[in-house]
Specification:
Layout (H helix, E strand, L loop, with lengths): L2 H7 L3 E6 L2 H17 L3 E6 L1 H11 L6 E5 H4 L3 H16 L5 E5 L8 H17 L5 E8 L5 H10 L2 E4 L2 E4 L6 H8 L12 E6 L3 H14 L4 H21 L3 E9 L2 E8 L19 H12 L2 E7 L2 E9 L3
Length: about 325
């Protein structure tokens, strides 16, 4: 790909680093007012404080902005990306260029969740590349840890502060950032995990085993079917496309029901596997996209010794 082509496909994806509500308003309000004035589709996905500041700053122009609550949008990384894709294709892009302001939710996230949301920020540069979209992500520098702010500079090609828009010299290409997220190996399942071997013709028994384990660990009935379907899909891929047999471990930890599915005979390439809205004819991507949408978080680690897919679902508090 030539430099000119990359520039044409690049997403204007900026991190707004602010330390006070006034700093946020001085950047966010003109950004949105410019979009409304240009007839763009202006959308804000933010918490109540940021939403109130934008309403106050825009005045009557706020009627030209769609406001979405961040808490309901940023539930899981794949759910958020699916919502971006679906709303943009069905509603926003048909009406014109999209101007988004998003305030990701970081409070209360575990270390695993933070890593996956950072991965999400990097993947937006791929998922929305070449689309009629400008995206500004707000980061409260007074409240967020320095390490997270440093990663904002690594996942956004441009930064916005009191001095305006500038290139992010710390920016890392999405594929490289993605690989960094997968660099740490998964810890083995605990010795107390329930284990089952499976192969061709054994999926009905595997599903029954999963249903029993879900009930034993207190997963609500409404969440059991998504859990069983997700694990069954991964096991099907192992049987159909992998070594023909695998192993499953199930346990509960840190408020989650966790399942490991391993294929000891095949390394599964994980370049954004199932992380982006699938486009035909990529069957494996479509299957893993469905699996990720059914779960809270899905981790994949693969090497010459095989592949491990770890699926997380939240348990009731």
């Amino acid at each position: 790909m030539t430099t000119g082509t990359r520039a044409a496909l690049a997403l204007p994806h900026r991190a707004l680093l602010h330390s006070t509500p006034a700093e946020f308003a001085r950047a966010a309000v003109p950004y949105l007012a410019e979009g409304v004035g240009a007839g763009e589709v202006a959308v804000v996905i933010a918490g109540p404080d940021a939403t109130e500041l934008i309403h106050e700053g825009l005045g009557a122009a706020a009627h030209g902005v769609e406001f979405i609550a961040a808490a309901g949008w940023f539930t899981t990384p794949v759910a958020a990306l699916a919502s971006y894709d679906e709303r943009a294709r069905q509603d926003w892009w048909p009406r014109g260029r999209l101007r988004l302001l998003a305030e990701p939710v970081w409070a209360g996230r575990s270390a695993l969740e933070v890593r996956e949301w950072l991965r999400h920020e990097a993947l937006l540069n791929v998922a929305l590349a070449g689309s009629p979209t400008t995206l500004l992500c707000a980061y409260d520098a007074a409240d967020l840890p320095p390490a997270l702010l440093a990663h904002a500079a690594r996942t956004h090609p441009e930064l916005v502060d009191e001095d305006g828009i500038r290139p992010s010299h710390g920016y890392v290409e999405p594929a490289d950032f993605y690989a960094e997220c997968n660099a740490e190996p998964l810890a083995p399942p605990p010795i107390t995990a329930a284990r089952r071997i499976f192969g061709a013709g054994e999926l009905p028994g595997l599903r029954a085993f999963l249903t029993r384990e879900a009930a034993r660990h207190g997963l609500p009935a409404a969440d059991t079917l998504p859990f069983v379907l997700a694990v069954n899909e991964v096991a099907t891929m192992v049987i159909r496309d992998g070594g023909g047999h695998g192993a499953l471990w199930v346990w509960a930890a840190d408020g989650e029901l966790v399942a490991d599915v391993t294929d000891p005979n095949r390394g599964m390439p994980d370049r954004f596997l199932g992380q982006l809205p699938p486009r035909p004819p990529h069957q494996a991507d479509a299957a893993m996209w469905a699996v990720r949408r059914l779960c809270h978080i899905v981790e994949v680690r693969s090497n010459s010794m095989g592949t491990r897919v770890r699926l997380h679902l939240r348990l009731p508090a």
